[in-house]
Design goal:
Distance between the termini: 37 Å
Order of helices and strands: HHH
Structural class: mainly alpha
Helix content: over 70%
Largest sheet: none
Number of helices: 3
Shape: globular
Length: 84
């Protein structure tokens, strides 16, 4: 059951991050899930905590969203040379 929750939350976080960064038209659901999960990892590193230790809360969701936005900003910077 935990894997399904990770995939759903990762998909939602990746989708929201892609809307914020205006890359939604370029990404499909699979890439949104990857961005959300990797973004959660990056957010955990940035904020010094582990999001895996606690359940899904507003705080862990926001940390994951910030991490996903940072990830998309880095990808945009590498791809285009500028953040949108």
């Amino acid at each position: 059951m935990g894997l399904i929750v990770w995939l759903v939350i990762g998909g939602v976080v990746g989708w929201l991050a892609s809307i914020v960064m205006r890359t939604d038209a370029q990404q499909g659901i699979f890439l949104n899930i990857i961005v959300g999960i990797v973004g959660a990892f990056i957010g955990g590193l940035l904020f010094g905590g582990s999001i895996n230790d606690s359940g899904v809360t507003v705080t862990t969701f926001l940390v994951s969203l910030v991490g996903a936005i940072v990830l998309l900003a880095i990808v945009n910077l590498v791809r285009r040379g500028a953040v949108r």
